[in-house]
Design goal:
This protein is an alpha+beta fold. The chain is 39% helix and 30% strand. It contains 2 helices and 3 strands, in the order αββαβ.
Length: 83
């Protein structure tokens, strides 16, 4: 299973308890840093407190999976809305 798909499968159940879904996941290098970006979505949008709550759920799962050898920054955000 591809690493990003494995990450998605591992976090989608736990974050569904917050009524959130994984919108997208990417792993990319910007400058000299790698980023693991996870974008979440929920009906009605997601506020900053909910992102923090989701981060507390996702971070230990990612630590357990340890998907990449190089150091990276975990970036969890909400889907942008044009409302």
């Amino acid at each position: 299973m591809e690493k990003l798909e494995e990450i998605k499968e591992s976090i989608k159940g736990p974050i569904s308890k917050l009524n959130m879904v994984v919108d997208s996941i990417s792993y990319e290098k910007e400058g000299s840093y790698y980023f693991l970006r996870i974008v979440l979505d929920r009906v009605g949008g997601i506020d900053m407190d909910s992102i923090v709550e989701a981060t507390h759920i996702i971070n230990p799962i990612i630590d357990e999976l340890d998907p990449y050898d190089e150091s990276y920054i975990l970036d969890i955000s909400s889907k942008e809305r044009n409302e």
